[in-house]
Specification:
mainly alpha
């Protein structure tokens, strides 16, 4: 009996592998069609998903059943919009291939799990899309690269209207941040290609660079900051610089990345310190927050130098930052 079962599984897997290329071309995910992947990438993903689905079918059901994006979830919880990012992140590495499959190969949700009204169903599916891309990016697994690059290209091809900076929580931004988290030269190049202020993906690209832990990213953001045309753009770039320079996030990457992290933190601090005297209000607050994230050991001494020639308001802001710096380090 056991021998027959093994033979059956082998034949089944062999049959699926044989027909995979044909199925991949015709299939479609929530975000794209399989044909929008290159032939080699498409075949590799399809084969990996088939083997994974045979081994762990329940993981695929969990992706489709995200309660936060179902009417009996987000409406009952009285959420203003569907949201399931926490559920997708909770899947961890086991959710990678199920989510990539849902995004690019095979999206067939149970109709009863989504709203019947088209406008609500659209919101629920977009929330699922954003949540899956976000969760995939956090995993930093290079197997996601072809799907994320294809989604980024689709966003560029669609020439979508750029959202106002302060609420740019678009699919494009989440894709850019996922690319940034992968952090390879290919991802950096894809983001850099949209660093023109008039480009619809500019804001998303800036956000993506904030998660791309490379010294090149710091230089690109510093250059973008120098060319910022308005306060809102300046704040957006400064926030990305704080994300990039975060001492905690560099520490999480381990000892081997410490030299890169120190160079990035220094580069960001060098660019932000002069802004303290040239900005005020919300923009200065954002600069202060990013300097605190960079957390250089010599920050207090450098702030003292700036304070010596500052006006009363800036002196107060610097004193506040120095106090926060001291409290944070005393708690460690």
């Amino acid at each position: 009996m056991m021998k027959q079962k093994v033979i059956f599984l082998a034949v089944t897997l062999g049959t699926l592998v044989a027909i995979a290329p044909a199925l991949a071309v015709e299939s479609a995910g929530l975000a794209m069609t399989a044909a929008q992947l290159g032939p080699a990438d498409r075949a590799a993903l399809q084969h990996a998903v088939m083997a994974d689905r045979l081994a762990r079918p329940a993981a695929y059901d969990l992706v489709a059943a995200a309660r936060g994006c179902r009417p009996d979830g987000w409406k009952v919880a009285r959420n203003p919009t569907p949201v399931c990012s926490r559920e997708m992140r909770a899947l961890g590495p086991a959710g990678l291939l199920p989510m990539l499959s849902a995004l690019a190969l095979d999206w067939q949700p149970d109709a009863s799990r989504l709203s019947s009204a088209p406008e609500l169903r659209s919101k629920e599916e977009q929330a699922m899309l954003v949540a899956m891309v976000d969760a995939v990016g956090i995993l930093r697994d290079t197997r996601a690269r072809p799907v994320l690059l294809a989604l980024w290209k689709l966003a560029a091809d669609r020439r979508e209207v750029q959202l106002p900076i302060e609420r740019a929580n678009s699919v494009s931004r989440v894709v850019a941040e996922a690319l940034g988290r992968l952090g390879g030269a290919v991802e950096l190049q894809a983001l850099q290609a949209h660093l023109r202020a008039e480009d619809p993906l500019y804001n998303a690209a800036i956000a993506g660079l904030g998660w791309c832990k490379r010294t090149d990213s710091a230089q690109l953001l510093v250059s973008a900051l120098a060319g910022a045309k308005d306060d809102a753009t300046q704040r957006w770039i400064v926030a990305a610089m704080g994300t990039l320079a975060s001492s905690w996030s560099w520490q999480a990457l381990g000892k081997v990345r410490e030299p890169d992290g120190l160079r990035v933190r220094q580069r960001v601090t060098d660019a932000l310190l002069p802004l303290l005297a040239r900005t005020q209000g919300e923009t200065r607050e954002r600069v202060v927050a990013s300097l605190q994230l960079a957390d250089l050991p010599d920050l207090p001494a450098r702030l003292a130098t700036v304070r010596a020639t500052a006006d009363a308001t800036l002196q107060h802001d610097i004193d506040d930052l120095l106090g926060r710096y001291a409290r944070a380090h005393a708690a460690r």
